[in-house]
Design a protein that fits this description.
With about 260 residues, the protein is α/β, with parallel strands linked by helices. Helix content is about 25%, strand content about 20%.
Length: about 260
């Protein structure tokens, strides 16, 4: 962490994710940190991002702090237009028109498959049984993972979350690697990055297994390896991520005025 700037790991993760979003793109953000990253990008370096929510709110910017949900007054009060989830997910995302999406993950594996359905503690097999722990569900994340041209995954970097193989695929990454997505016929291109509280992972160009591409100034390669549930490879051009600038932090905190996502 910079000696002159103070910020949290959650803020670093949000800024690093926001840097993945480019000006002019059609982008869809999930609730919470996904929205923080997306609207940070819009406030900082991508003013012409065309944002949509899963509920169909288009072209809005947060008012008075980060929205609590996809149709909160903070995100709906200045929207350009209102449609619905069928338009947002069924038409724009499912047709491949959406450039980028941002989703969260309770569990993610080495091929970028996401589990937000439940924890069983064992392989499910061919017969579905109730999970030991029920998670929040996929929401619109499955649609985003299946149809967006690319998507970014955000997750706290813990060994229990970063597993060799997820127990249940709520939102598909590269399945079992290689050209699996193409063979299945997904419209979307798959996850381009996993941004964590420790660094950035990107898929290998051929195997699609996620490798360590970059670490944050307050983390290390060893710490990331210790908190990953597979033998993670390190990319040849691995590097340290630039710290947030004063401008970036100011833009982020203007979006999150209430500070509800500024965790340590």
């Amino acid at each position: 962490m910079s000696a002159s700037l103070s910020y949290t790991r959650q803020e670093m993760m949000a800024i690093a994710t926001g840097r993945e979003i480019h000006d002019g793109e059609l982008a869809i953000f999930g609730v919470g940190l996904s929205m923080l990253a997306g609207y940070f990008a819009q406030a900082c370096h991508a003013p012409n991002v065309r944002s949509i929510t899963e509920g169909g709110i288009f072209g809005a910017t947060p008012v008075g702090g980060l929205p609590w949900g996809i149709e909160c007054n903070r995100i709906s009060s200045n929207a350009v237009s209102f449609t619905n989830a069928i338009d947002a997910l069924g038409f724009l995302v499912a047709s491949g028109r959406c450039d980028v999406g941002v989703i969260g993950a309770a569990q993610v594996d080495k091929f970028g498959n996401v589990n937000t359905t439940g924890i069983w503690g064992h392989e499910i097999g061919n017969t579905y049984t109730p999970p030991v722990t029920r998670l929040t569900g996929a929401g619109g994340a499955n649609d985003i993972a299946s149809g967006a041209r690319r998507f970014v995954i955000m997750a706290n970097h813990e060994k229990k979350r970063f597993v060799d193989k997820v127990e249940y695929i709520s939102s598909p990454g590269y399945l079992n690697g290689g050209d699996a997505r193409e063979r299945i016929g997904f419209i979307g291109g798959g996850p381009s990055a996993i941004i964590t509280t420790l660094g950035i992972l990107r898929p290998h160009s051929k195997t699609k297994e996620f490798e360590l591409a970059a670490w944050f100034s307050f983390s290390s390669i060893d710490e990331i390896r210790a908190n990953t549930g597979w033998d993670i490879r390190v990319a040849e051009n691995v590097a340290q991520v630039p710290d947030p600038t004063e401008v970036e932090l100011a833009a982020l905190r203007e979006v999150d005025k209430t500070g509800m996502l500024r965790k340590k």
